[in-house]
Amino acid sequence: MKKAKDLLNFWEVQMKQSHTSSNYFFRKSPSHYHLMLLVMAAYKHDEKLSVEELKTKLFKTSRPKSALIINEACEKNFFILEKTSVDQRKKNVRPTESFVKEFEEYIETLKGLDL
Length: 115
Hints:
- By secondary structure, this protein is mainly α.
- It has a single domain, classed as Winged helix-like DNA-binding domain superfamily/Winged helix DNA-binding domain (Arc Repressor Mutant, subunit A, Orthogonal Bundle).
- It has helices spanning 2-15, 22-25, 30-44, 51-57, 63-75, 97-111, and strands at residues 79-83, 91-95.
- Helix content is 59%, strand content 9%.
- α4 crosses α5 (63-75).
- The chain is built from 6 helices and 2 strands.
- The chain starts with a helix and ends with a helix.
């Protein structure tokens, strides 16, 4: 029962974060959360992830809606779009340094719950 209470307390703290934070943004919908996981997985595995690949991988999300979510994440400074050296039209998505730090802190806190 202690583990369940610790997890509940963790989520309550997370939800009290500012509405401008990534906590709020990436919990707006399953598509927002999935987007974050895809970008962070590519980052952790040192893989390039293009905008087009990301739009394709997002489940149950139209391409226009995916584009809106990606653009909004960039506007909020969670992600950056980088042009590739080979094809200037193709852009890769990567997390900003500040978002990587926030994500790492989130994971460490979650690990510390001893679930």
